[in-house]
């Protein structure tokens, strides 16, 4: 494949403060080989370079959605939707969701819970070039207690021996990380309450110990404050939802001691709110919504790194949209350039992909999103891709090809 040169009115390499007016990116196969001003990069390009110019547009790194479930169909009952469905049908559904993520400008996604390791299989097929899709970081079936949150995905384990065995089996499936349901959740009938811890602190330490023996990080689903505290002490890598829900569900805590430990250890929080976050806030009511927004600001003040994800697949969180979810952080008060950094550079770091993707830099994967105008003045343009390159391959969005 000849070299390809992409130029635009501005290039945002990813980190806050970096902006190249009249910039360009040079791509060789699947890798970025040069980035800089158009003039400088043009001089370095081969004579037969294939160029694509995007005047009036911005080139930035492909976006990273840190929390999805490819196996669930949005709007469907999650339990019924995966229970009696054949593996072939589920894989077909997941491949469709992977294409939709590309349509939304997402070039890397973390799947935090599938059935039978199907997201791992999809990942391998995407990696082999058999199917289009973003880079998939897959957790396999989440670990839970018998009849616990999301038990129907097949990750139940009871007691230390079974937990160790479950982690080993998930690693053997080829998982990139371990997902553990530290607290209950909202989608599983008759399972522990959202704020209740499903595991003892000792059991959590066992899971993290066994995962790190296999070289795997741990993502912890935790709504309750005690569940969050135990996950932090056990040494997990990320906390999902991180709701700080008080026992009984009647309010929210701000535990500075726990938050400071979390920040000190660089444990990321992914609150995983959907693109329709205003609808989410409405459902909570004004008073509770204000408390929730305050808690986001508090986590940020304490120094907890936040990463965006949408929990796509659940409720009404579609795979077709990601940019809308970033508006939540603007509502909370984050500057736009910081939000872009969170959805690219910071997320890549949290997923262990530093140096591979998440920024436009030499030797990084050619994961490029081209959007009209300037996302630094309007984040909404992130949802209107003009072009997407994933690992060097240009994606043809469904709307353009139909
Ligand atoms: Zn989830």
TrEMBL record:
Ranges where the Amidohydrolase-related domain occurs: 58-384
Protein name stated in the entry: Imidazolonepropionase
Lineage, highest ranks first: Bacteria, Bacillati, Actinomycetota, Actinomycetes, Pseudonocardiales
Single annotated GO MF: hydrolase activity, acting on carbon-nitrogen (but not peptide) bonds
Coiled-coil residues: none
Pfam families, sorted: Amidohydro_1
Classification via SUPFAM superfamilies: Composite domain of metallo-dependent hydrolases, Metallo-dependent hydrolases
Organism: Amycolatopsis pretoriensis
């Amino acid at each position: 494949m000849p070299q390809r040169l992409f130029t635009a009115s501005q290039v945002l390499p990813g980190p806050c403060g970096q902006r190249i007016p009249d910039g360009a990116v040079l791509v060789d196969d699947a890798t970025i080989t040069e980035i800089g001003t158009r003039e400088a990069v043009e001089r370095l390009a081969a004579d037969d370079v294939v160029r694509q110019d995007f005047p009036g547009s911005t080139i930035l790194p492909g976006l990273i959605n840190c929390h999805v479930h490819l196996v669930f169909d949005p709007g469907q009952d999650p339990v019924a939707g995966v229970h009696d469905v054949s593996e072939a049908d589920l894989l077909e559904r997941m491949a469709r969701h992977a294409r939709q993520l590309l349509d939304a400008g997402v070039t890397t996604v973390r799947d935090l819970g599938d059935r039978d390791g199907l997201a791992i299989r999809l990942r391998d097929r995407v990696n082999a070039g058999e199917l289009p899709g973003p880079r998939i970081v897959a957790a396999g079936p989440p670990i839970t207690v018998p009849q616990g949150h999301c038990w129907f995905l097949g990750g139940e384990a009871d007691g230390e021996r079974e937990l160790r065995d479950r982690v080993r089996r998930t690693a053997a499936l080829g998982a990139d990380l371990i997902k553990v349901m530290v607290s209950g959740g909202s989608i599983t009938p008759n399972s522990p309450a959202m704020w209740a811890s499903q595991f003892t602190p000792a059991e959590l330490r066992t899971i993290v110990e066994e995962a790190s023996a296999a070289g795997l990080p741990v993502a912890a689903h935790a709504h309750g404050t005690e569940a969050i505290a135990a996950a932090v002490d056990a040494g997990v890598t990320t906390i999902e939802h991180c709701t700080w829900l008080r026992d009984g569900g009647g309010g929210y805590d701000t535990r500075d001691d726990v938050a400071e430990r979390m920040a000190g250890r660089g444990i990321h929080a992914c609150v995983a709110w959907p693109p329709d976050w205003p609808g989410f806030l409405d459902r909570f009511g004004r008073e509770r919504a204000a408390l929730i927004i305050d808690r986001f600001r508090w986590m940020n003040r304490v120094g907890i790194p936040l990463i965006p994800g949408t929990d796509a697949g659940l409720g009404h969180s579609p795979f077709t949209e990601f940019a809308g979810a970033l508006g939540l952080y603007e509502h909370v008060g984050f500057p736009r350039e910081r939000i872009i950094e969170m959805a690219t550079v910071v997320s890549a770091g949290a997923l262990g992909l530093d140096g591979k993707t998440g920024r436009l830099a030499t030797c990084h994967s050619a994961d490029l999103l081209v959007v009209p105008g300037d996302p630094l003045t309007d984040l909404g343009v992130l949802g209107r891709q003009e072009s997407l390159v994933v690992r060097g391959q240009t994606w043809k969005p469904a709307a353009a090809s139909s």
